[in-house]
Amino acid sequence: MSFSINSTRGQTQIRTKALAFCAVSVTLVLFCLGSWSSAPSHAVYSRVFKRATQASEPAIWQPEAGIKWQIQLANAVEDIALGADVYDIDMFDNDAGKIADIHKTGAKVICYFSAGTYEDWRPDANKFSQSDFGSELPDWPGERWLNLRSTGIRSIMQTRLDLAKQKGCDGVDPDNIDAYGNENGLGLTEADSILYLNWLSSEAHSRGMSIGLKNGGDIISSVIEKMQWSVNEQCAQYDECDTYAVFTQVGKPVFHIEYVDEMDGGKADSSGDNDSNDSGDSGDESASGTSSSSSASTTNGISVSSASTSGASSAVSDETKSTGMKSTNDAASGNEQNSGADDDSDDDDDESDDGDDDDNDSDDQTTTHDKNTPGSGRKSRDCNIRRAPKLKARGVTVSQKTLACKAKSADRFSTVIKNMNLDAWVQYC
Questions:
Q1: What is Dmax (Cα atoms) for the chain?
Q2: The dihedral sign for the CA sequence 13, 14, 17, 22
Q3: How many distinct structural domains can be found in the chain?
Q4: Buried (b) or exposed (e) across 124-138, using 16+ Cβ within 10 A?
Q5: For residue 310, what are the domain limits?
Q6: Cβ-contact 204, 172 below 8 angstroms
Q7: Is 40 exposed, middle or buried (0-12, 13-18, 19+ CB in 10 A)?
């Protein structure tokens, strides 16, 4: 059947088709316009959202590799005139006022606490549950491994992080995260430490604080992306610095500690020559060298100033040369620091006898810190350095300083030489 174009029915049909065509055309045009404009709109939205998100997230401090630092975990910090860029201090022993004072010098503050062990002397000790305790740490009364998987432990650590934030800490130094390398009594593994440390990192970052890895060389590859630095003890002594150098390779610092009393006296130079203490140390040794408690109260007398550090290697005293690790003032004041002190004074001219005395001193120290020797639990030595016996050694031999400061792969490390009880005394490379 056909219709004439001039008929009413034919004209109606033409109009209907025309309207349908227009509708389809308009739809296609709108669709194309929408597709063309959606990409820029989405990009703008993404940029705005990203800015809003970044504005709400706290900035995380990332220190540079090689900066100068000081660590003092024995008592409250008193000497803040060292010219250090970073102070690693005990979170419980220092209040917000002390941290504010350090900030006034332009330095940053890392707050130390044990994240992997229970310590019965801490103010929050009553918050822990016996069910979360593992084995006792040998030779460290009042300290036990903690169950890193426990929600109760994590709740306590969140409270500690809140305290660190309230006090103004720029970052935190959670110790004893390497239970996997010890007889912990809880079956804790590397995987547990990795999960726990990554969780701690997220919690610290959410509060605007940085965080670092304490020792834990076995798990570096699994946590380094979330860590801002490494704190390492004795990598030079145990020839492990290459393990931690991956931090400096990506621009993150390794805060490196070598302990003067842990170094083998047999490695000392045959002449017995010592690097003297920095000028601030040697002058007041008779007053401050007898105990760490007195050293903490007279830190200006025993700690290294930035000005004196540069001349440390050249300021060598004759008496220090003859007595190995013992300072001249200790000898003058009659302090009985080591069992071989009298023999040293009698045999100053006999180098071989001095060498024997140094060995005896080393043996005495090894007995005192038997847990910290390679043969008595390699990883256990890293833990609980806060309650070590009060050490008196203030001298550093040339070979000891060379061992600490010239270690393979450690050229960009931030190295300090300390006593095991980590009081205010420090020597820099």
A1: 137
A2: negative
A3: 1
A4: eeeebeeebbbebbe
A5: 69-428
A6: yes
A7: exposed
**Cα distance between residue 21 and residue 27, in whole Å:** 10
Which amino acid belongs to residue 182? N
In a domain, 45, yes or no: no
Q: How far apart are CA 312 and CA 277, in angstroms?
A: 6
Predicted confidence band of residue 22 (pLDDT cuts 50, 70, 90): low
Alpha-carbon distance of 262 to 373, in angstroms, equals 8
CATH number of the CATH domain containing 310: 3.20.20.70
pLDDT digits (tens, 9 = 90+) for 158-200: 999 999 999 999 999 999 999 999 999 999 999 999 999 999 9
- Total residue count of the chain as it appears in this document: 429
Residue 33 C-beta-side C-alpha neighbours within 13 Å: 6
Question: Would you give the DSSP letter of residue 326?
Answer: S
In a domain, 214, yes or no: yes
Looking at 226-230, 276-280, 390-394, which range is the least confident one? 276-280
Q: Who's near 184: CB < 8 A, 6+ residues apart?
A: 134, 135, 145
Q: What is the dihedral of CA 196, 199, 201, 207, to 10 degrees?
A: -140
205-216: per-residue pLDDT in tens? 999 999 999 999
Q: Which of 278, 365, 281, 337 is nearest to 345 (CA)?
A: 337
The CA distance from 22 to 20, in Å, is: 5
pLDDT tens digits, one per residue of 379-400: 333 444 444 444 455 678 899 9
Is 13 a domain residue?
no
Torsions phi, psi of 228, nearest 5?
-100, -15
Does pTM surpass 0.70? Answer: no
Closest CA to 399 of 236, 173, 164: 236
- Give the C-alpha distances (Å, rounded to integers) separating 15 from 1, 18, 26, 50, 377: 19, 5, 16, 52, 95
Q: Is residue 15 part of a domain?
A: no
Tell me 298's DSSP state.
T
Q: How far apart are CA 414 and CA 334, in angstroms?
A: 35
Decide if 429 contacts 415 (C-beta within 8 A). yes
